[in-house]
């Protein structure tokens, strides 16, 4: 079973994807980390994030980089959004994500284009939303807990800029798949969001089972 979880920054998609993975005992991939790793490698080798060939040269990164806490910073998130707009970067990371999704037993993947590009045939798709100001407050608290002194206003401005860049790029823009269930977590606790996500997945699985049974009959 493949579950696709997409949505903008700090909407809660990672939290929900991890909880779904635990609930259904599936492996989970945070695909945003791949783009963050590319962005960080471009910085380390002193190349230019805005130049596609430079970003492509960083797509072959060491997996150990994925565990580096620096990837979680606001700055790396912003640079990830710049490198991820290059079609050749997306192409370079495509097969790795496809392979993860296609492993026996299935997987949960979260990102921006899982339900639209990486796993368009996913068994269940969620698109997670929350207002920009609530997402900024959540991300600000998270960054503060990790020792950052960045202001709430700066986090909100970064989130708005990233939303705009991610949703207006030509390659795999951030958009809900037409068959994704929408889940707005703005006024839900983490526990309530996860509970609702499980209900939505269960409903999609039941509908899919009905459709499959109809096709067989
Ligand atoms: N429903 C919620 N209510 C309050 N805080 C939340 C909620 N969902 C997630 N968070 C918190 O917001 C931050 C961002 O959540 P995360 O799941 O990492 O978002 P995303 O993966 O969409 O960027 C985390 O600190 C997380 O604990
Ligand atoms: N499947 C994905 C995942 C992330 N990304 C890009 O990578 C950036 C960082 O993604 P992320 O999921 O780690 O960011 P947050 O939503 O956690 O802030 C995003 O702003 C997107 O530009 C993408 O283009 N496609």
Automatic annotation (TrEMBL):
Residues 3-202 form the Cytidylate kinase domain. ATP binds at residues 7-15. The keyword Methyltransferase does not apply. Keywords: ATP-binding, Cytoplasm, Kinase, Nucleotide-binding, Transferase. Gene3D superfamilies: P-loop containing nucleotide triphosphate hydrolases. It holds the Pfam family Cytidylate_kin. The keyword Magnesium does not apply. Its EC number is 2.7.4.25. It catalyses: CMP + ATP = CDP + ADP; dCMP + ATP = dCDP + ADP. One of its GO terms (molecular function) is kinase activity. It is found in: Cytoplasm. InterPro entries: Cytidylate_kin, Cytidylate_kinase_dom, P-loop_NTPase. HAMAP family: Cytidyl_kinase_type1. Belongs to the cytidylate kinase family. Type 1 subfamily. This is Cytidylate kinase. It comes from Sphingomonas hylomeconis.
């Amino acid at each position: 079973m493949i579950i696709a979880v997409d949505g903008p920054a700090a909407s809660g998609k990672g939290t929900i994807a991890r909880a779904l993975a635990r609930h259904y005992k599936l492996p989970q991939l945070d695909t945003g980390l791949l783009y963050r790793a590319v962005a960080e490698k471009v910085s380390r080798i002193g190349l230019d994030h805005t130049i596609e060939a430079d970003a492509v040269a960083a797509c072959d990164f060491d997996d150990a980089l994925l565990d580096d806490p620096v990837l979680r910073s606001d700055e790396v998130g912003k640079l990830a959004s710049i490198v991820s707009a290059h079609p050749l970067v997306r192409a370079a990371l495509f097969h790795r994500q496809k392979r993860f999704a296609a492993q026996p037993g299935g997987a949960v993947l979260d990102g921006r284009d899982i339900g639209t590009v990486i796993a368009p045939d996913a068994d269940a798709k969620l698109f997670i939303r929350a207002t920009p100001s609530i997402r900024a407050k959540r991300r600000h608290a998270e960054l503060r807990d990790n020792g950052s002194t960045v202001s709430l206003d700066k986090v909100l401005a970064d989130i708005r800029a990233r939303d705009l860049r991610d949703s207006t790029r030509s390659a795999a823009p951030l958009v809900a798949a037409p068959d994704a269930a929408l889940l707005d977590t703005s006024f839900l606790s983490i526990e309530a969001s996860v509970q609702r996500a499980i209900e939505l997945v269960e409903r999609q699985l039941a509908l899919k089972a009905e459709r499959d049974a109809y096709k067989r009959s």
